Amino acid sequence: MKKLSKSGLSAALLAATIWLPLQAHAGLFDDDEARKALLDLRSKVEAMRADLQARIDNKADKASTLDLINQNDATLQQVNQLRGQIEVLANELANAQKRQKDFYVDLDTRLRKLEPREVTIDGKTAQVDPNEQRSYEAAYKLFTAGDYKAAGVALQEFVQRYPGSSYAANAQYWLGNSYFAQRDCKAAIAAQQVVLKNYADSPKAPDAMLNIASCQTELKDKAARKTLQDLIKQYPDSTAAETAKQRLGGK
Questions:
Q1: 190/192 Cα distance (integer angstroms)
Q2: Positive or negative CA dihedral for 9, 11, 14, 19?
Q3: What is the DSSP letter of 125?
Q4: pTM above 0.70?
Q5: Is the pLDDT of residue 164 over 60?
């Protein structure tokens, strides 16, 4: 059995309400009058059904429209929420990218600090480690500041730690000078002899030999004269050789 729709059921009830009284009094009319009355009744019923259906449809349309409005509002709220989340994520992404960029810049800076540097030592270019350079410069700074004892300690540590450094000959030379400045001639001679033995080609070698002669003179050692003569023979074009000649009386 088919189920009646809401509009169909309403129309049927309305027709029954009107039809039953009509059936009760049908005998009071002749056939023409009954047919006319029936047609009029059908027209009225149809009009009422159409009106009722229009009202139901109108109400349904309003309900559907209201549902659509509610759904649209809910969708707009979700869109706004998503937009807010996207803005937060975009901000977090921008911050993360900035942190990553800063990290790489910092890392690159640190790596550059660890890379060998090209420096000029006694007129010659050389590649040195940044830590090596800082250590030498710190020790040399102590010497130039007149803190010969601390300079001697720092220079001794440097030559032990960096024996193959391009600064090693200079460090060894200034180590000998720091001992001489402290009036420790024996230690000074020993330090300068290391320069002559290990770094004979260094520009500091002639000066190291001259300092040995100075220490020998200080110690009243007659070997000072021979050291000056050897200096002139081994490094004839050096400034130290000119000084040696002067000390020997121009001979």
A1: 6
A2: negative
A3: E
A4: no
A5: yes
Q: Quote the tokens at residue 196.
A: 């002559």
Q: Are 137 and 150 in contact (CB under 8 A)?
A: no
Residue 96 pLDDT level (bands cut at 50, 70, 90): confident
Q: Residue 87 — pLDDT band, cuts 50, 70, 90?
A: confident
Residue with tokens 């001794």: 156
Helix axis angle for 239-247 and 204-218, nearest 10°, is 20
Instruction: Tell me the residue type at 215.
Output: C
Helix 148-161 vs helix 130-144: angle between axes, to the nearest 10 degrees?
A: 160
- For residue 111, give the 3-state DSSP assignment: helix
Identify any residues that bridge with 119 across adjacent strands, giving them in sequence order.
126
Percent of all residues in the chain with a pLDDT value above 70, rounded to a whole number: 74
**Strand partners for 124:** 121
Segment 9-30, tens digit of pLDDT = 445 544 445 444 545 444 444 5
Alpha carbon 185 to its chain centroid, in Å, reads 54
